[in-house]
Amino acid sequence: MSIQWWGLLLDLWFILACLPFHISAFNLDTDTKHVLRKNGDPGSMFGFSLALHQQLNPVNKKLLLVGAPRAKSLTKAEVTGGIYQCELTTDSKSCERVKFDNNEFLENKDVKDQWMGVRVTSQGPGQSVMTCAHRYQEWSTNPDTPNLVFGQCYILGEDLHKSDAHRIWRRVICDDRKHIKDKPKNPDWFGYCQQGHSAAFAKDNTSLLFGGPGAYQWKGTCFELGDTFRMEIAFFFPGFSIDSGMALTKKGQLTIVSGAPRGGFSGEVAFLKRDPLAERSLSVENILKGPGLASSFGYDIAVVDLNADGWDDLAVGAPEFFLKEGVVGGAVYIYINNRGRQWEKIEPVRLDGNKDSMFGLAVENIGDVNQDGYEDIAVGAPYDGVGRVYLYYGSSGGIHKKTAQIITAESYNIRRFGFSLTGKIDMDDNHYPDLAVGSLSDSIFVYRARPVVNIREDLRITPSTINMAVIFINKGCGSDNICQSNLELQYRFCSRPKLLGQDVFTPLPSERGIPVISAGDEDIALEVNVTNREGDDAHQSHLIIKLPDSLSFSSLHFNHISCNPNDNGTLTDCELGNPFKRDVTFYVILSTSRISLSTTDVNVTLQLETTSVQKIQASEAKAKVVFELHLQVFGLARPSQVSFGGAVKGESAMKSEDDIGTLVEYEFRIWNLGRPLKSFANASLNIYWPKENAAGKWLLYLVQIHSEGIQNVPCSPLKEISPDQHIKEAFSSEDGFSFLSKKRKYKTLTCSDELKCVEIRCPLLGLDSTAVVFLQARLWNSTFIEVPISLMFMVCLQVRLTVFPERKAAIWAKVAWWVIFLSVMVGLLLLALLGFLLWKVTQFVIHTVGGWWEEL
């Protein structure tokens, strides 16, 4: 059998080898020896913005332009900001300051703290460069008038020198009397415009695009400068990010796209076009709404043709998007263009980042980096550790959701890597566009693309058929040369806490011998021990791990074994060795992010396989899933003290609920401090209700149950609510009050001794944060009259109700009118007597003092 099997395998290999196939491999070169690093002055925010630029005249050279908005002026006197040009050299300090408008920097105090270089962008090879300072101010000579933060932008030629012809574009939008002569210069209009917070060259190469998020009291606005169109639609922060395309809504028509990360409280992206009916205005074509509250949808945007269909697609960053039940921290939404139609109905593809990573803070069209005919994008996650950059490839279907490459910066002593991105230009002339990444550590990095290696192989065999016999003989497997292995498998579930930065694997707690997985564990580990004791070599040994849908393969904690999971991570093939000779223990890290409240247990199938002779049964690794719900319960009785008294009445003599006794309402308030509960098969409020005393007489007669904060509470058993149907519901009741007797006796009644209690179960359906359950009951007056105890407590779920007998009726009688009249007259008489005595004393003192003065 073994020889036949190997013969069939060899035949199959020859058949597959005769088929032509194609292999592609690509990535940006992340070898530190090949990555170019450029450093700026400490504290200058060198790398806040980036742009790749190609100069054609007077010489042809490629430059990296770097914004440093906190750089000092050329005289080192003030912080003004600036931009730097860097050539593609290995010298980390070879960047030179771009010198323009030096006289203003030296003489005009308006440029202090203006943040020049907050944006820098290139129009393309041999064309202009634009840089902006959104905090440029106009100082006021009047102390009562605030400084006006207009912002300004400069247009530089391809050689990075500013000509006089370009000077008219400096701060022309927010400070030009020609355009706002009828509007006052104050915060209500353009006083805090902050032009240049976002800036770009329009894709039609005839206009400039500016965002002014501070206009209209920070409601924001967008500008197109060419024929001087201006957007007059005000909503939260439009102009925070800006881009354009010539095939977004109609081919050949310029469409401006602007992000408003605070629009609609979750973020919006507006599609703008020149309004044919309103002169010098932009109108809104479409608005894309952010999907999550406060997700900053639209913080950054990129227009890119991902599927090469000639229509521009859109990538929108939402760096503050999160899922309460998951580990998502930031997202990028990919909108694939439907031939310019119904953008608001397009279902976007969501790319998720790691928790608290600010994934999507920077989104960039980096061109076709792997030369497959589709444009690609890069996404920055500057808070993912020290920062990361994720690459995603375009495809005929739109985009590959699987990350093509992750660029990390752990080997560099920096922070916030990936804060800014730029690409789409081939810097080293190998016909592949390169990528530059900025950080907030005054350092930038240039990653050069390596050429894609395409391998095509065509194997042809002549003659087409070969008759052959293949016999494999395994040496070292006994006298019969037959390998009989003895593979055995042991396993256990473990948690993975960290101790001094190292993983420590600890067995999970168990109940009745079954491991228990807590829903709070983001990752767990399956410890696998494979032995081959007293057996021959186990050839082609594998371990097949089949996971349930609630678990997925995350990683492997062992260097000498490789595991290959399928696309969704539920089936993993681990190669143990060929041959497998000695024992091995390794840990398979499993993600629990798919576990839901409906998951009660997990079963993992472990199957050992080998080509050696051995029959191996599959093993089942089982574990129980337990959710620890962070619930708090607080209860009170209203009123907390009630009285009883009067004559004893039989149950048949009671016609209404008022005949039973005082109305008491129990309130149970439940707080959910954890994540929302979506299924409550095991979540309920259980109340032990003191129904009767030891003699079987009524204590608390339950009348009604209702709730607030959640839907109807179907408490059971229903027969415990108003069990005597002949007693009618009372429409009014009066709460009495009396004084406690001087001689008090106490007795506490609980469900554990003298009370007969019934368990009332109230499922908490749909509890997200807070809910209140109310139980209304009547104190059975007759029962307490018959009990010879002056004062007693009933305890129900630590909710105390004090019951005591009423005082005699004399205490409740009204006072006669003559008693009140007589009391008033006596009081007035005493007041008059007191006044007379005071007058007499005063006269005595006056006569005495007067006599002394006469003698003197």
UniProtKB/TrEMBL annotation:
Pfam families to which the protein is assigned, alphabetical = FG-GAP, Integrin_A_Ig_2, Integrin_A_Ig_3
- Record's InterPro entries? FG-GAP, Int_alpha_beta-p, Integrin_alpha, Integrin_alpha_Ig-like_2, Integrin_alpha_Ig-like_3, Integrin_alpha_N, Integrin_dom_sf
Q: Name one GO biological process term.
A: cell-cell adhesion
Q: Which residues form the signal peptide?
A: 1-25
Which molecular function term from Gene Ontology is one that the record holds? integrin binding
Q: Where are the transmembrane segments?
A: 779-803, 815-839
| Cell compartment(s), UniProt | Membrane
Positions of the Integrin alpha third immunoglobulin-like domain: 631-799
A GO CC term attached to the entry: integrin complex
Instruction: Enumerate the FG-GAP repeat regions by residue range.
Output: 32-95, 283-344, 345-401, 402-464
Membrane-related topology note:
Single-pass type I membrane protein
Keyword Signal on entry = yes
* Start and end residues of each Integrin alpha second immunoglobulin-like domain: 477-624
Keywords recorded for this protein, A-Z: Cell adhesion, Glycoprotein, Integrin, Membrane, Receptor, Repeat, Signal, Transmembrane, Transmembrane helix
- Family the entry assigns: Belongs to the integrin alpha chain family.
Please give the name of this protein. Integrin, alpha 6, like
Organism whose genome encodes this protein: Hucho hucho (huchen)
| Native organism taxonomy | Eukaryota, Metazoa, Chordata, Craniata, Vertebrata
